[in-house]
Every structure is written in structure tokens, then in C-alpha cells.
Amino acid sequence: MSLNLKTYTEHFTNPLYLESGRILEPYDITYETYGFLNEDKSNVVVICHALTGSHHCAGTYEGDKKPGWWDNFVGGGKAVDTDKYFVICTNVIGSCFGSTGPMSPQHPHHNPYRYKFPVVTIKDMVKAQRILFDKLGIHSVHAIIGGSMGGMQALLFAIHYPNFASKVISMATTHATQPWAIAFNKVAQESILKDPDFKGGYYDSNTIKEQGLSGMAVGRMAGHISFLSHESMKSKFGREYKNTDGLYELFGKFQIELFLEYNGYNFTKWFDPLSYLYITKAINIYDISRGFDSLSEALRKISTELHLISFSNDQLFKNFEMREISDALSKIGNTNHTYIDVESNYGHDAFLVEVEKFEEYVKDILNG
Description:
alpha/beta, Rossmann fold, 2 domains, eight-stranded mixed sheet, two-stranded antiparallel ribbon, 12 helices
């Protein structure tokens, strides 16, 4: 069967009341669907994306060489089988791929919000998705799956909309962002803010798309260090040196340096710097126990079947951060959750790269 990839943008005129007390109106949500919805709408699987992800999690657009960011995981016969499930992936509010974000026109005039855009939280992103699903006539889903910031969304769905999903799978994430992750985000934020081409937030988007933003590239390089691990860098690049560079040339490069440069500078041509600031802010202030007396109290809200997956060498969200969630659930007598730690040397990005290590497990959960 075909992937049946379709992209839509839904427009909302009702105000979205944000956690900060501010309001977003009107707003758009761009989303993508794959597979076919069955008659009783019981085969819906929601995919939540990470920081720099988008609604495009699988398949290839016409003329594109690169498929969606989780194409090895979502599709016909894959872990999230689109021959069986109707998959929806939305672009979060605050992002820059079609959903309303800091560079969207502020109603009623057409100038972008820029810094007038309100700070949104991960909980706000989830709330907006829930409103979208209601509008689409989807009032419950089979499963919600996400890794990293997507895993944060999945956990918040389980807490704040306990009857919405039958199963929630949260990977490579945490219950509250820790200083280590905030520190990496700080490097990226400062690098953007101090770049003269950022122009205090009043840059021209088209210029950035053509030329990139060197400060943001530097910040992204720091990010990439946190996504990998000592071991994966060693096996991937070792001490290989660029063939055409001399060892004693001051700017001669190791392969790891080329990798960071390539990924850093490329990234700035397709991801908006203000969106990066807003989304890293949302990640930094993420804490599932906010609004509750304790983590345990927040977790008591969960009635869905919850599956937690960590990766043994994740440097960004350490595996024990997910074990803490599992232990807290066990302590309050929750018997409807599982926790596994996937043996991996890759680092944080294992949830994107080493799908073969957990795909059978996910299949069993979805089919079980």
C-alpha cells in the first residue's frame, strides 16, 4: 500500500490560552498524515517531534532526496506500520515549518511577531495539538509516540489528557530538563543573540536562508556534541584527518570538525533563529510536575498504558532520568507502565538512528 502522505494546515480563530496567561490568536497548525483512517477511527497513532523536527516525519516530498526525520521508523511494514495505522504528526506552535511561530504575521497587520510572540511551553504545544485533533473529529487515539522533546509532549499528553491515548511511548527524555541540557541550550542562545547578523531579532528571513547565521551554527555545533557520545564520535570519526589538509596547517581539520561545521552551517539555512530561541526556552522550563505539589502527584494523573525507553549512553537526558519516572510510578502503585534501557553507545540521537534496537519492542506494544 502507499504511504498516502498528505500535508495540511488548519486555521484556528478561537484564542489559545497559554500557560503564561497570554493568548495566541489566531493561529495555524501544519500537520501531516500517513496511511488511512479506519471506520471507527481506532487506528490513529500520533508522532511528536523533537526540537528541530517538523510535521514531516516520513516519506519524501517530490524533488527531495532526504526523507522525513523518522522515515526508518514510520511507514509500510515499519515499526509504526502505515498499512495498519493512520499516523498524524503536527508541527508544534513556536516552530518554523507552517505552524504559528515568532516569524508568523501578527494579526491584524502582517508584520512578524518576532519578540512579541508569547513564550510557549511544551504543555501549550500539546494543548494546541489536542484542539486540532478535536477539530478533526479524533477524540481518542491508539498511541502517542515521541523522543526527546517529542517524549516530553507524550508524557504531558498522558498527564493532562489521561483518557486520550490508549498507549503512550516516551523515549530519550526526562521529567524536568536538567542543568546539563539547559547549559547546552544557553551556548546556542548566546551564540544567536551575539551574532551581529541576528540584528537583535530584526533580521531578514530570506537573507538568513541564503547566507545562514554563523552564531547559530556555532550553537548548533555545541548541540551536536550533546546528541552524540564519546564512543559514537570515536567509532564514527576517530582521529581521521581531512585528506587534503596538512597536520601542521593551523586551520587543517579533523573529520569530526568537518562534520560539526557541515551540520552547523547547513542547519541555519533551514531553521529560524527566533524559533530556536523560543523552543529551547520551552525545553528549559519543561517540568511535568509544574502545577502539582510533586512529581508523584503529577504521575497519579496517568491512567494510560505508559512505556518508557531510555538509551544507556544518552548524554543529554541520562538514562537514570527516565528510570526516576518509572520508579516514581512504581512507588505510587502504577502497574500499567514499563521501562527499558536500550543498550546503545550512540548517544541521545540513538532514538533516531538505531531504530533496529527497539522497533520490535514498539511493534509489540502497538499490536499487543
